[in-house]
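Input record, target 12 of the design panel.
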């Protein structure tokens, strides 16, 4: 029986910014500030964690679209918290509102979409590319 995925469900993920999470390390910039690629990953993690409890055994989700703004820099040493809220469910596609905050205020916001997948089937399709 398929579990109903509730619109409005919210989750969060957080981390402390370290030297290894900077734009300079990611190659997305030259400064020692929280890197946008790591902001994206934290937002995706919050969304993935929000969706996973409603999936059946053997299912997972993968990100298919991310549209965010990174509005304010965060220094090394500060904590960042990303929040994801389910805004729509359309079959296997689930939409989220994502936001992120550091200890001072809003640092990023936008939307994210994830597709519900059967993990084994997804990996088999991916790995089939190796034999082409």
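The sequence produced for target 12 reads:
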């Amino acid at each position: 029986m398929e579990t109903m995925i509730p619109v409005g469900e919210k989750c969060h993920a957080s981390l402390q910014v370290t030297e290894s999470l900077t734009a300079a390390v990611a190659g997305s910039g030259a400064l020692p500030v929280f890197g946008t690629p790591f902001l994206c990953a934290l937002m995706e993690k919050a969304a993935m964690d929000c969706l996973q409890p409603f999936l059946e055994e053997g299912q997972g989700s993968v990100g298919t679209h991310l549209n965010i703004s990174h509005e304010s820099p965060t220094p090394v040493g500060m904590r960042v918290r990303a929040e994801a809220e389910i805004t729509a469910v359309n079959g296997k596609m689930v939409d989220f509102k994502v936001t992120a905050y550091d200890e001072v205020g809003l640092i990023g916001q936008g939307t994210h979409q994830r597709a519900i997948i059967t993990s084994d089937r997804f990996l088999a399709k991916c790995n089939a590319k190796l034999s082409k």
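The first helix runs from residue 23 to 26.
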